[in-house]
Amino acid sequence: MPKAPHYILDNFTSTIFAGNPAAVCLLDRFPKDAVMRKIAMENGYSQTAFVRSKNGFNPEVDEIYTLRWFTPTTEVDLCGHATMAASYVLFNEIGVQGNHLRFDTKSGILDVQQTDSGSLTLEFPAREVVPVDLRASVEPCLGEAVLSTAASGPTLIAELANEVSVAQLSPNIDKIAQTLDYDGLIVTARGDKHDFVSRFFCPRLGITEDPVTGSAHCGLAPFWAAKLGKTQFEARQVSKRGGELAVRLEKNKVYLTGEAKLYLRGEIFYED
User: Fold this and answer.
1) Are residues 49 and 159 in the same domain?
2) Cβ atoms of 218 and 254 closer than 8 Å
3) Region 128-134 average pLDDT
4) How many C-beta atoms lie closer than 10 Å to residue 193's C-beta?
5) Is 120 in the same domain as 98?
6) pLDDT tens for residues 69-116?
7) For a FRET experiment, which of 74, 82, 86, 150 has its CA 20 to 30 Å from that of 22?
8) How far is CA 185 from the centre of its chain?
9) What is the DSSP letter of 212?
10) Which domain covers residue 184, as residue numbers?
């Protein structure tokens, strides 16, 4: 029976039991997609990162790693917190030298830098933000007045009046899944202590609410850049677990900086 090193980390947080948990599975070859979906479902987290090395995770030889992300129900094209988790494992458990990692993914080549303090900066593609007036569709889902809506890749952004409205929101998850033709709904507002806050609901991907979502900020950065007239932000996702990100928009790239905390290291066994 095949087995693989397996890790669980909390991401975009400086403390354990906060931020967004993700699993990381290290592989010399990818099993069947159906097997990876089952592993992700068994883990039960919003994302499991599957990392493949062609050289047995030898840091003296490996120049790039192949990275794929699975929710409990499907594979996705981009995930921030699971990329952060995979990067932490490679730097701190495998012993990658230097401060730079490269991943080959469905969203292209992604670069990650480790700072002297140990935090991680993800270089992600910015997503175009296109205003669309879907307030009449979104407001019944949220039970709140919506100031504006915009499409950002596979997600929809809805702006509310203030941070309290976002934090106390109790959306109708079934309506989000049934009536909005997007993979996820990002709800955002200007923050009280941060430049902006957000929450992310994606029931179509098998996730009711994602605690801290790096990929959502690929659209939130240009969205708030247009509104605030700046390109560097301190952001907080105000889910129950909560998490913080430093966000920088530079041309067609978004740089997301945060910390990861190791919760578990072990080994899994699976049938391929």
Assistant:
1) no
2) yes
3) 97
4) 8
5) yes
6) 999 999 999 999 999 999 999 999 999 989 999 999 999 999 999 998
7) 150
8) 14
9) S
10) 129-250
Tokens of 211: 């605690």
Closest CA to 221 of 191, 193, 256, 194: 256
> What torsion, rounded to 10 degrees, do the Cα atoms 36, 40, 43, 47 define?
130
Other CB atoms within 10 A of residue 229 CB: 7
**Residues 181, 234: one domain?**
yes
Beta-carbon count within 10 A of 28 CB: 12
**Residue 27 is encoded by which pair of tokens?**
């592989």
- Round the CA-based radius of gyration of the chain to a whole number and report it: 18
List the structure tokens of 64.
């790039």
Average pLDDT, the chain: 96
CA distance 27 to 253: 29
**pTM (predicted TM-score):** 0.92
What are 147-183's pLDDT values in tens digits? 999 999 999 999 999 999 999 999 999 999 999 999 9
Q: Which residues contact 209 (CB under 8 A, 6 or more apart)?
A: 199, 200, 201, 202, 239
For residues 248 and 235, is the Cβ–Cβ distance under 8 A? no
Assess whether 7 and 121 both reside in one domain. yes
Q: Are 68 and 148 members of one domain?
A: no
CA dihedral 76, 46, 204, 78 (to 10 degrees): -20
> What span, in angstroms and rounded, lies between the C-alpha atoms of 248 and 254?
6
How many folded domains does the chain comprise? 2
pLDDT tens digits for range 103-119: 999 999 999 999 988 89
DSSP state string for 47-67? -EEEEE-TTSS-TTT---EEE
> Which amino acid is it at 233?
F
